[in-house]
Structures
1.
Amino acid sequence: MGFIDGIIEQAQGSPKRVVLPEAADERVLKAAGDIQARKIAHVVLIGEQDEVSRNLKSLGITGDFEIVDPATASWADEFAHEYFEMRKHKGLTEEQAKMAMSECIPHGVMLLNANKADGLVAGAAHSTGDVLRPALQILKTVPGVRLASSFFFMAFEEVTYLFADCGLVENPDASQLAEIAIATAQSALTFNIEPTVALLSYSTKGSANSPLTQKVAEATELAQKRAEEVFGPDSAVKIDGELQADAALVERVGRKKAPSSEVAGHAKVLIFPDLNVGNISYKLVQYLAGAEAYGPIIQGTRLPVNDLSRGCVAEDIVGVTAITVVQCQMLQ
C-alpha cells in the first residue's frame, strides 16, 4: 500500500467535516465528488448555492454536499462582527470585516473557528498567503506553540520523507529553526514516519564555519534540548545537525562524515535552513526524482488548514484532504 493510500484508509475510519472553499474551481468539485464517494470526509463547499449545484451537475458529480453561501448564511453578520472584534486593534473597520467574511477562504476559516467544520484545504486558485493569512489571524497557533510552520510529504514507493519548512517561514533564526524541527518531529510521529530529524547545511559538524552554518548548529542544540522536554529522554525522536544532505541520507557517507550521529545516514525528516533552500529542494525532488509531493501541510495552527499548489490536480486535493482528516483525528 502506498503512502497516500494508507492515509486515505486512516481517514475513512473516522471522516471529518472539511471545507473546500474554492468551489468555483472545476478541480475542487471533481475532488469533492471523489472525497464524498470514497467517504474520506464530509465536504463543505463555499459558493453561491445554485451556481455550485449547476456546476456539479454539469460535471456529472452526484452527492449530498453542504454548500455555504457567505452572502446568505444565517451567521454572516455574526462572523463579520466576530472578525471585526479580532482585528480592530489592527485598524480593521466593520465594513472591511464584512467584506472579508464575504470571501470564500476567510469565511471557511471562520467556520472552523465556530466549530461548524473541522479542517480546511485551499490553494488551488489562491496563493499560499491568501490561504494562511486568515488561518493565522483567526485560528492563531496552538497554546504553547510560538510559530506556525509547514512541511511537505515527499513520498517514494518505499519511503516517505518530511521536508520543512518549504512554504511558510522565510528566514528562520536559530530559535525558530529549532521550533520547526520540533514541530516536524511531532508531525512525523502523527503520521507514523520515523522521527529521525536532520538539520541541513552545506557543512557537516563544523567542516565549514560561517554565520550560515553556525545558525544551524545553534538550532540543533536548541532543538535537542527542547526535544527532551517535549518528547522525553527515551522517545524515538532523534535530532542532529548540522549535516549535509548526503551525510543525512546516505549511510556510507554518514558513517564517514558524522560517525557518532544516530541520525546521519538514516534521516527521514529534513529541516532546511531557509525557505529558498526548502522550496527549491522539494520541487527538484518532485520533478526530477519523481516523488509525490503533498503540501504544504501546516503545523502549529489551532485547527488544520492546509495549502495546495495552484498547479495541483484533483487527485492532489483528495490526498491533502485525507491528510487534513488525519490531523483532525489527532485532535480528538
2.
Amino acid sequence: MALLTLLDAAGSAHGFALKKRYDDLLGQERELKFGQVYSTLARLERDGLAAGVGFEQGGAAERKLYAITDAGLTEVDTWLHTPQLPGGRPTELFTKVVLALVSGRPAGEILEAQREVYLERMRQVTAGRAAGDVVDRLAGDFELLHLEADLKWVELAGQRLERLASQLDAKGER
C-alpha cells in the first residue's frame, strides 16, 4: 500500500524512484529491497491497481513507468481511511516473561534488561529528533510514545511477577 500511495503522489514513476522515496520517508531502519519493489509493482499491475504507462531512459537501460489506476485509487483511499487496532497479544517480550515464569527462570531479570534497552532507545530517539525533518520528528514522537507505553507495561508486569508465578504454580503449569 505504501508503494501504491507513493505512486499516486508521484503521478507516474519507475521502481527506482519509488524505492528512493520510500526509503527517504519511511525506510530509516527498514529500507526496501529492489526485488521487493519490482515484485510488488508487478503484482499491482497484475491486480489492476497500477498500469505501465511508458518508459523513461535511465542510464544504460529503460525504466518502466507506472501509474495508479482508478481501482488503485479506491484501494488507497479505503486503506488510508480504515482505522486499525494493534495486534492482540503483546510482542515477544510478553512471551518471554510468561515462558520464563513457567520454566522457573527469573522473569524480573528479563524485564529489567528490556527496561534498560527501552530507556537507551528513548535517549537515542530524543537526541536525534532535533536534527531531523518533520517526518523524522513525527516518527520519533511515535516511537517515544510506544516506548513509554512499553515501559509502563514492564513496570506493571514487574509488580505482578510474584502473583503470576503463584497462579502458574496453582494451575500446575510450573
3.
Amino acid sequence: MTDHSAPLALTAHLALVSSISFGGFPTVLPDVRNFVVGAHGWMTNREFADLFAIAQSIPGPSMILMMSLVGWKVWGFPGALASAFATFGPPCTMYFAAYRLWDRFHDLPWQRIVRQGLVPVTMGLVIASGMVMARAADTSWRTVIVTIVAATIMLTTRLNPIWLLLLGGALGGLGLL
C-alpha cells in the first residue's frame, strides 16, 4: 500500500461498523465489502470472497479472522492487529455496558418491544450479507448455479450444511467452478 492513510481509514471504518452491527459482524459485511472493494479497490470481489471462505472454514471467531486478513492485505501484520481490535473492541465495550443496563431494568416492558423489533432487523441484515457474498463469489454461470442449488437445498431440507460445503470444495478443487 502506498497510501499511508489506508490503515487508519480501514481501522476507523471497522470500528464504526462494528459498533452498529446488530446480530454480529456479518450483518455489516456488505458495507465492509463496499468499502474495501468498491470504494478503495484494496482487493477484488474474488479476493474478498476467498477471505470470507477461509475465515468461515477455520474454527473460532470468523469475522475477527476475516477482518484481520483484510487488514493484513492493506497493511501487513500491524493492519491485521488493528483490524482485529477494531472489529471486537468497540462492540465488546458497548455490549458490556448495555448488558449491565439491560439486566438492571429487566422487568420493564420496553425490553420485550426492543427484542421483538431487533429480530426482523437482524434477519434482514444477515440476508443482505448473504446476498452480497453470493454476488461476490458468483463469478461464472457455474458458480451461480451452485449458489442457487445450495440455497434451495438449505431452504427446503434439513441437510447439514457441511455436506454442501464439502461438495462445493470438491467441485472447486476439481476445477469445475
